[in-house]
C-alpha cells in the first residue's frame, strides 16, 4: 500500500492534497461518507507517493472503513460542506488561478 505524502514540520506534518471543483447547471459535485452523511467535502484527497494529481482526485469510494458517495448540491445549500469558501467563491467564478491557505493550528 502506498503511503500518504506527508512532510514533518515542527510538531506536525504538512499533508500534500489535491482537489477538483466539478460544476454543472449551478450545482457542485461533493463527496460524503456513511459515517457522517450530513457533511460533504470536495472531490480529491491526499497524494500518495508515486500517485499523480489526477489519480488522487479520482475517488476510490472506500477510505478505510468509510464508504464514500457522490452528491450534486446547490452552492447555496444550507448543509455543511467543506471547504466553506466554495459558498462565496463559486457564485462568481473567474478565469484566473486563486490560492487558498488554511491553517488549523
Q: Whole-number average pLDDT?
A: 85
Radius of gyration: 15 Å
* H-E string: EEEEEEHEEEH
Q: How many β-strand runs?
A: 9
Supply the number of helical segments.
2
Range of helix content? under 10%
Shape: globular
Largest beta-sheet characterization = 7 strands, mixed
Question: Ranges with pLDDT <50 over ≥5 residues?
Answer: none
Beta content comes to 35-45%
Question: Can you lay out the helices and strands and say which pair or pack?
Answer:
Blueprint: E1 6-9, E2 12-15, E3 17-20, E4 23-24, E5 27-33, E6 40-46, H1 53-57, E7 62-63, E8 66-74, E9 81-82, H2 86-89
Parallel strand pairs: 6-9
Antiparallel strand pairs: 1-2, 3-6, 4-5, 5-6, 5-8, 7-8
Protein architecture, described:
- By secondary structure, this protein is mostly beta strands.
- The chain is 9% helix and 39% strand.
- The chain has 2 helices and 9 strands.
- Strands 3, 4, 5, 6, 7, 8 and 9 form a 7-stranded mixed beta sheet that branches. A two-stranded antiparallel ribbon has the order 1-2.
- The chain starts with 5 loop residues before the first strand and ends in a 16-residue tail after the last helix.
- The model has no long low-confidence stretch (mean pLDDT 85).
Task: Describe the structure concisely for a colleague.
With 105 residues, the chain is mainly beta. The protein has helices at residues 53-57, 86-89, and strands at residues 6-9, 12-15, 17-20, 23-24, 27-33, 40-46, 62-63, 66-74, 81-82. The radius of gyration is 15 Å and the shape is globular.
